[in-house]
Amino acid sequence: MRKFKVEYGYAFSGGIEEYDVIEMLAENKLDLLKKVRRRFKELCYDDRDLVEWIESGDNWDREVDDEFLLGLIDDDIYSSFGSFGLLLAEDIYFDCVELK
């Protein structure tokens, strides 16, 4: 298991309102994303809303499988700092970094 620091909060036009910073254990980024979705169910879109948000509602039969979820891991946000983001809802951000 690898240890990750997860900072999460509400993003708005004036900046970011941080909720909390926690540590989570996960096998990899995909496993971490799944655990974050389970733990913060009330902050994240459910499967149907997630597909609608990402794909503009054109693919209602799209399954939220591992391939779909991998597309929600944003490695480009802070890649130079070794961190990455999870795109799980429109106004909620999850910034993650693997702890060594």
What would your notes on this structure say?
- There is one protein chain.
- The chain has 3 helices and 5 strands, in the order E-E-H-H-H-E-E-E.
- It has 100 residues and is an alpha+beta fold.
- The protein has a 5-stranded antiparallel beta sheet with strand order 2-1-5-4-3.
- The protein is globular.
- The chain starts with a strand and ends with a strand.
Q: Output mean pLDDT.
A: 84
Which band does the percent of strand residues land in?
35-45%
How many DSSP H or I helices? 3
**In terms of structural class, how would the helical and strand content be classed?**
alpha+beta
Strand order of the largest sheet: 2-1-5-4-3
Shape: globular
Helix content: 25-40%
Low-confidence stretches: none
What is the structure about, briefly put?
Helix content is 25%, strand content 37%. It has 100 residues and is of the alpha+beta class.
